[in-house]
Design goal:
The complex is a heterodimer of chains A (481) and B (249). Chain A is of the alpha/beta class and 481 residues long. Chain A has 12 helices and 23 strands. Chain B contains 9 helices and 12 strands. The chains are: A alpha/beta (481), B alpha/beta (249). At the A-B interface, helix 9 and helix 10 of A face helix 2, strand 7 and helix 3 of B.
C-alpha cells in the first residue's frame, strides 16, 4: 500500500527509470523503406508468399495515404526514409530453452523487473518478451499448450498456425484502415499471438513486454488475440525504451476477436520514454487497437494507463457486432512536461442490445496537453443499445491543457447514450490537508491523482495495479512547487 | 512544549495577528476564544504551516525547534496536529488507506519502521470505537459525502491514530448538534494524557463545558486580551466579547 510513496522517494531525481541501453550485438536494416526492404524483412522471417504479398499490398496502399492531421498534437514532419524498420539481437536461431537466452538480454529484463523465468514474482503470468523487432522468449508455453491455448510470437504463429493467422490477420484492422496501420501492415516485425480454444478459461495472465533498444529504429509490432466460443483471457502489455534525444516511432496494431460468449480483457501500462523536461526526445506512440465482439454475449474490455511517450495517438475501440455484446474502455492518460496525448475510444454498436461503458481520466501537469477523443456510434440495427461515458480531467498547475472531444452518432431511436464530463484542479486545500497529516507535497499530489483514477485502476489485474500506482507517482515528479 | 512570542501575521497586506503571546506546556489544555474575525483560525493555520500567511514578526518554538522554519509535513512528523474546521474531501482515497499512509509517512520521517497491516487494523478498530466512528465510514472515500458531524468525528479519529504531542482543534464544535458535540468532546477527553497538549479554538463556551480547559485566552482583533482559568469562559458567556472589543479599541 505504501508503494507510491516509497517509489517517489527512491526517484527524487525525477529521471526516467527505464532509460538505460543494452549493449547487445544487433542486426539492423539500413534506414529507408521500399518494396525491397519489405521483401527482405519477410524473407528474413521466412514468411510464406501470401504474407509477403499482403505486406506489399499494404505498402502500396500506404504510399497513397496521407498522415492524419486532425488530432490535437503537433510534431515536426517524420522522415519515414530515415527510420530503420528492422532491428534484432544477433543470434543464430531462436533459443531452444529459456536458459539459452543472451545474458545481456536476460539482464535487461531483470533490470526492468520482469526476469525471464517461470517462477516466483511472475508465477501467475506468462510473458512474451519482445526486444526491438523480435520476440526473444515466451514463458509457460508448454503449460498453456496442455489446455490448447496458443501463446507465442506472431512470427511463430505464421509458421506453426498459418490457417488461424491467415483467417484473422487484418480482419479487424484492415491494412488500409489508416496511415499508421498501413505502415505497420507493411513492415510489422513481431508481436504476440494468442488463441484460446472453445470453452477454455485461460488460467493465467498472458503478457507481452515490449522493449525498444536500438537507436534510429521504429517498433512496429502486431498483436492478434482470438477468443473462441465461451473462452476467457486476460492479456497485459507493458513497454519501455531507453532515453534518447531523437524521437522514435512506435506504430503498433492490435486486433482482438471475441466469438460467442467469449471475453477478452486487455490491459496496457504504457511507459515509453516521454522525452526530457525540455520536451526533447521521446517515443511517438501511434497505435491502432481494435477489437470485435463478433459473437453473441461476447465482451471486450480495454484498460489503459498511459504515462509515457512524447506523443500518444491511440483509440482502442470495440465493434459490437454480436447481439448483447459488451464493450468497455477504462483509461488513465497522464501527461507532464511537454507530453501530448490525444487518446480515447470508439464504440461501434451494430448488434441489438449492445452495451458500452467508457471511463476516461485525463491528468495534465507541466506544459502538457491532454485530449480525450471518443466516438459512440449507434447503427440503425442496434435496437436497445446503450452507452455511458464518463470523462474527467484533472489539471495540475496553470500551464497545461485538457480537452474533451466527444462524437456521438445515433441512428436508432431506441438507443440510450449518456455523456458526463468534469474538469477539476487539485486544490490547495487538498494539498495542505494531506501535508498537515505528514505527506510530502509530491506524495500528496500522487495520492489525490491515484484517488482520481481509482475507478480505472481497479480494472487492472493486481500485479499491474501496484506498478501503475507507482508509475503515476513517478510521472508526476516535479509537477508541483 | 509550544511557545509563541510577539507573533504578527498578515494576509494580503492586512494584519490579522497583532502580537500574540502564548505558552502551552505538556499535558495542558488551553482554549482560545474570540468573536468571528478575531484571528483564531489564522493562528491555527499558521501553527500548522499553511501557505498564504506572511509572518511579519515574532517566533514560535515547538519542542525546542523553530516551528516557522518547518514544512507542514515536518510539523506533523514533529507531533503537531490540526483538526480542521472544514476537512477536505479526497474522492477515490479510502479513509482507511489515507490513515495508514499518513501514519507511515510520519513514522518514516521519524526514522521508524512502517506499521504492520495487522497492528494497524487492530489500532484502527480500537480508536474508531473510542471515537465513535462506524466501520462503514472507514471504508468510504475520505470525507467525501460525509455529514458535518461525521467529518468532525473523523478528524478526531485521525488525531487518535496519529497520536500527536500537540493537537489543535479549530472550531471542532461548529455545526455539531449537542449529542455530536458531547460525543466528540468525550472522545477528546479520552485522548488527554500527561504528555499531550491541546489547543481548543472555539467561538462558544459550550464546548468547554465538556472539554474542560486549564487555561482560557480571549482573542480580540489579533491579540490575546485576557487569560484566565475556566471561569473566564463563563464570564464571557454572560458578558459577551464587547467589553474586550472596547478595551482593544
Amino acid at each position: 500500500m505504501s508503494s507510491t510513496i516509497e517509489t517517489l522517494k527512491e526517484h527524487t531525481t525525477g529521471e526516467y527509470k527505464y532509460g538505460f541501453m543494452t549493449a547487445v550485438d544487433e542486426e539492423t536494416t539500413p534506414p529507408g523503406l521500399d518494396e525491397e526492404v519489405i521483401r527482405r524483412i519477410s524473407a528474413r522471417k521466412e514468411e510464406p508468399e501470401w504474407l509477403t504479398e499482403w505486406r506489399l499490398s499494404a505498402y502500396r496502399r500506404w504510399l497513397s495515404m496521407e498522415e492524419p492531421d486532425w488530432q490535437k498534437v503537433t510534431y515536426p514532419p517524420i522522415d519515414y526514409q530515415a527510420i530503420s524498420y528492422f532491428a534484432a539481437p544477433r543470434q543464430k536461431e531462436r533459443p531452444k530453452s529459456l536458459d539459452d537466452i543472451d545474458p545481456e538480454i536476460r539482464r535487461t529484463y531483470e533490470k526492468l523487473g520482469i526476469p525471464i523465468r517461470e517462477q516466483e514474482i511472475l508465477a501467475g503470468v506468462a510473458v512474451d518478451y519482445v526486444f526491438d523487432s523480435v520476440s526473444v522468449a515466451t514463458t509457460f508455453k508448454n503449460k498453456l499448450a496442455e489446455l490448447g491455448i496458443i501463446f507465442c510470437s506472431i512470427s511463430e504463429a505464421v509458421r506453426d498456425h498459418p490457417d488461424l493467422v491467415r483467417k484473422y490477420l487484418g480482419s479487424v484492422v484492415p491494412p488500409g484502415d489508416n496511415f499508421f496501420a498501413a505502415l505497420n501492415s507493411a513492415v510489422f516485425s513481431d508481436g504476440s499471438f494468442v488463441y484460446v480454444p472453445k470453452g477454455v478459461r485461460c488460467p493465467m495472465e498472458l503478457s507481452t513486454y515490449f522493449r525498444i533498444n536500438a537507436a534510429g529504429t521504429g517498433q512496429f509490432e502486431r498483436t492478434l488475440i482470438i477468443a473462441d466460443e465461451g473462452s476467457y483471457v486476460s492479456y497485459l502489455e507493458g513497454c519501455t525504451a531507453p532515453m534518447r534525444d531523437e524521437n522514435q516511432l512506435h506504430a503498433a496494431v492490435v486486433e482482438l476477436i471475441a466469438l460467442d460468449d467469449a471475453e477478452i480483457k486487455y490491459s496496457t501500462v504504457q511507459n515509453w520514454y516521454p522525452g526530457d523536461k525540455e520536451g526533447k526526445g521521446g517515443i511517438y506512440n501511434f497505435v491502432t487497437k481494435r477489437g470485435i465482439c463478433r459473437g453473441r454475449r461476447s465482451k471486450i474490455s480495454w484498460t489503459q494507463v498511459e504515462t509515457g511517450s512524447a506523443i500518444t495517438w491511440k483509440y482502442p475501440s470495440c465493434i459490437l457486432q454480436g447481439e448483447d455484446s459488451v464493450g468497455e474502455f477504462y483509461s488513465v492518460a497522464l501527461t507532464n512536461n511537454f507530453q501530448q496525448a490525444d487518446t480515447g475510444t470508439k464504440m461501434i454498436h451494430i448488434g441489438r442490445r449492445t452495451r458500452s461503458r467508457i471511463v476516461a481520466k485525463g491528468i495534465a501537469a507541466g506544459r502538457s496537453d491532454s485530449t480525450y477523443r471518443g466516438l459512440v456510434r449507434i447503427m440503425p440495427g442496434a435496437t436497445g443499445a446503450r452507452n455511458h461515458t464518463q470523462c474527467d480531467s484533472l489539471l495540475i498547475g496553470d500551464r497545461c491543457g485538457a480537452h474533451t472531444v466527444p462524437y456521438i452518432e445515433v441512428k436508432n431511436r431506441s438507443a440510450k447514450v449518456e455523456h458526463e464530463a468534469t474538469t477539476s484542479k487539485i486544490s490547495e486545500d487538498q494539498l495542505f490537508y494531506c501535508r498537515s497529516r505528514g505527506f510530502s507535497e509530491e506524495d500528496a499530489v500522487a495520492l489525490v491523482v491515484n484517488g482520481f483514477c481509482r475507478e480505472v485502476m481497479e480494472e487492472l489485474p493486481m500485479e499491474f495495479a501496484v506498478e501503475a500506482r507507482k508509475l503515476l507517482g513517478i510521472s508526476l515528479e516535479g509537477s508541483v512547487g | 512544549m509550544l511557545r509563541i512570542e510577539g507573533l504578527r501575521v498578515a494576509v494580503e497586506g492586512k494584519r490579522i495577528l497583532d502580537g500574540v503571546d502564548l505558552e502551552i506546556a505538556a499535558g495542558e489544555t488551553h482554549a482560545v476564544m474570540g468573536p468571528n474575525g478575531s484571528g483564531k483560525s489564522t493562528l491555527a493555520h499558521v501553527l500548522a504551516g499553511r501557505e498564504g500567511y506572511e509572518v511579519e514578526d515574532g517566533r514560535i518554538t515547538f519542542m525546542g525547534e523553530d516551528l516557522l522554519a518547518m514544512e507542514p509535513e515536518e510539523r506533523a512528523a514533529a507531533g503537531l496536529f490540526l483538526a480542521m474546521q472544514y476537512p477536505v474531501e479526497i474522492p477515490g482515497v479510502s479513509n482507511m488507506y489515507f490513515l495508514r499512509q499518513a501514519i507511515n509517512a510520519v513514522r518514516k520521517a521519524r526514522g521508524e519502521p512502517e506499521i504492520a497491516a495487522g497492528a494497524f487494523m487492530k489500532m484502527l478498530r480500537e480508536k474508531a470505537k473510542l471515537v465513535g466512528v462506524p466501520e462503514e465510514l472507514l471504508r468510504r472515500d475520505l470525507n467525501t459525502d460525509f455529514s458535518g458531524g461525521e467529518k468532525k468525528r473523523n478528524e478526531i479519529l485521525q488525531l487518535a491514530m496519529l497520536e500527536p504531542r500537540l493537537a489543535i482543534l479549530d472550531e471542532t464544535d461548529s455545526g455539531l448538534d449537542i449529542d455530536a458535540l458531547k460525543a466528540v468532546a468525550g472522545a477528546v477527553n479520552g485522548l488527554r494524557t500527561p504528555e499531550r497538549a491541546f489547543l481548543v479554538i472555539t467561538h462558544y463556551q459550550r464546548l468547554l463545558e465538556y472539554i474542560v480547559p486549564d487555561r482560557v485566552h480571549v482573542m480580540v482583533r489579533g491579540r490575546i486580551r485576557r487569560s484566565g482559568g475556566r471561569e473566564l469562559a463563563l464570564e464571557l458567556e454572560q458578558r459577551g466579547y464587547e467589553q474586550f472589543a472596547a478595551e482593544a479599541a
